[in-house]
Amino acid sequence: MDSSGEMRLPSFTLHRLPTLADHLGGGDRRAAAIPNPIARHPLYHPSPSFFISATDVVLRDILFDASSASAGGGTLAAYHRTGPRREVAFDPSRVRAAIVTCGGLCPGTNTVVRELVVGLWELYGVRAVFGVRNGYRGFYFDGERGAAPARARDGAPLAQGRGHRDRRVPRRVYAVGGDGTMRGLVEILREARRRRLAVAVAGVPKTVDNDVGIIDRSFGFHTAVEEAQRAIAAAHVEAESAANGVGLVKLMGRSAGHIALHATLSSRDVDCCLIPEDFYLRGPGGLFEFLHRRLKRNGHAVVVVAEGAGQLLTVKYIDPTYMIRAVPANAADSLYCTLLAHSAIHGAMPRYTGFVPGPINGNYGYIPVEEVAEARNPVDTRDHKWAWVRSVTNQPDFVQSTEDKALAGLYKAV
């Protein structure tokens, strides 16, 4: 606190996004300011606060230590808030936009593509909208496919693809994919800057594992957790119907166990949850000892395993790994996909490029794609949520310290 008794809060640093003016030197007519077509849209009646200004920001962290703030230390990261701007940088009738999806399947991908097409077409009047087939390789090998709203409503006009990133792109590129896709988008951004091209690129993070950093969650995650409940329920029935039955459910999550964690908390039928961490099987406090006690007490057990944690049990094996991502998005994810798609359009049409839209503490912001490409979101086994899992399942930590490993060695020798 200062001398008046008021608490001084930390300052914040705005993570600035690149603009087309940065690429073109600020003097290109193609980047001139044009009134946003939404202002004349017959279904919209924009109020004075409808359009987002360049000074509207979203803070990355809303929880902080007030004692350090009172000492005047620390700055908070801030991002530009998503939403339509009062002016756009291109005449929409002359914009040529491309949409590309990369990586594996994910609930909501079709919704994102559909909303990108419909948003560009209906909100801004963009008529040259194309779908690039088979990922980034489609820019070179497979060409493009026209995408009108009527076709987009029937399903995604694109096929998924991986690899072969090519740098010859249209004037607006919307890339939907995971961390590899975002790294490819960084390359496209750098090439556009090097060649001084009026190319705006925007990414929509797609990972069912919810392992993208900075944003609150990735689309498709809620649907995947909901679908995982069915597999856990089936495993519980199977395990309960047999003497000493063990139901093993393998869920997606190579590097982060968010699906397994949330499915366990939502189910309450799970006896043990294993996520990608340093857990061990044998010895005091190991998985086998825990399961032995649980079987002896209850006569059955259900184990949920994230794929990155391995799979060494093979009884009553329920494997919905890919089923949970090959289903339609639920209502919450569908709405989320719409917001992401429209946020991407609203950012790329005015002047921004090299960004990814996403919810940050419940508010949507534009994040530089370089940050998203490198950010990770592993499960923190020291936080309250993992402690909640352990309280629900009553499982030990399964993380071996040096002392535990020594005791396990003695236990095995005996």
UniProtKB/TrEMBL annotation:
Limits of the Phosphofructokinase domain: 174-311
Keyword Manganese: no
Taxonomic classification: Eukaryota, Viridiplantae, Streptophyta, Embryophyta, Tracheophyta
The organism of origin for this protein: Panicum miliaceum (Proso millet)
InterPro entries, per the entry: ATP_PFK, PFKA, Phosphofructokinase_dom, PKF_sf, PyroP-dep_PFK_TP0108
Molecular-function annotations in GO: 6-phosphofructokinase activity; ATP binding; metal ion binding
Keyword field contains Metal-binding: yes
Substrates-to-products reaction catalysed: beta-D-fructose 6-phosphate + ATP = beta-D-fructose 1,6-bisphosphate + ADP + H(+)
Highest rank taxon of the organism: Eukaryota
UniProt keyword annotations, A-Z: Allosteric enzyme, ATP-binding, Glycolysis, Kinase, Magnesium, Metal-binding, Nucleotide-binding, Transferase
Gene Ontology CC entries for this record: cytoplasm
Entry cofactors: Mg(2+)
PANTHER family xrefs: ATP-DEPENDENT 6-PHOSPHOFRUCTOKINASE 1 (PTHR45770)
Gene Ontology process terms (BP): fructose 6-phosphate metabolic process
Pfam families recorded: PFK
Protein name as annotated: Phosphofructokinase domain-containing protein
